[in-house]
Amino acid sequence: MLFRATLAAGLFIGALGAAAVSIIGSSHGALADETGRYTMQPVEGGFLRLDTQTGAVSVCSDTDGTWSCAPTEDERSELEKENAKLRADNLVLREQIAGLGEKPKVTTPEDVDAAMDAFETVAERFGRIIKIMRREMEELDQEFNEPADPDPAPAN
User: Fold this and answer.
1) CA 139, 141, 142 angle in degrees (round to 5)?
2) pTM: predicted TM-score of the whole model, two decimal places
3) H or E element at residue 108
4) pLDDT tens digits, residue range 111-132?
5) Euclidean distance between CA atoms 6 and 109, whole angstroms
6) Nearest in space to 60 (alpha carbons), one of 70, 50, 52, 51
């Protein structure tokens, strides 16, 4: 008789447990189907929570009866930071390249005249320098080619 009572109690408790799992599972499944945003994985001292939309991982734990989740640093966040830095660097470089490739302004006839005037001034000054150098070279050649005084005066 004791065996039958124990067996009946065990079956009753098992049926209640199965019903509870079914109810919890279906309501949790409905919630998961509605949002589907987070998945939980049991770990020592709590749970890991994965945000399936952002990829953020948090550690959830019970402290004095209060559950809280703290974000974890992971490889993805480091890669996202590096990606953001590279995108900013890329933008700066693209702006610099765009600045280098600007087309020159249209040259007007007045601009050409001013450039030619400046070139003529440089050419005239260069020509004067050449004339001065040629004159000085001729003077040096004359001094070098003059016959030396064959009879220097005797020194007393």
Assistant:
1) 65
2) 0.29
3) none
4) 899 999 999 999 999 999 999 9
5) 112
6) 70
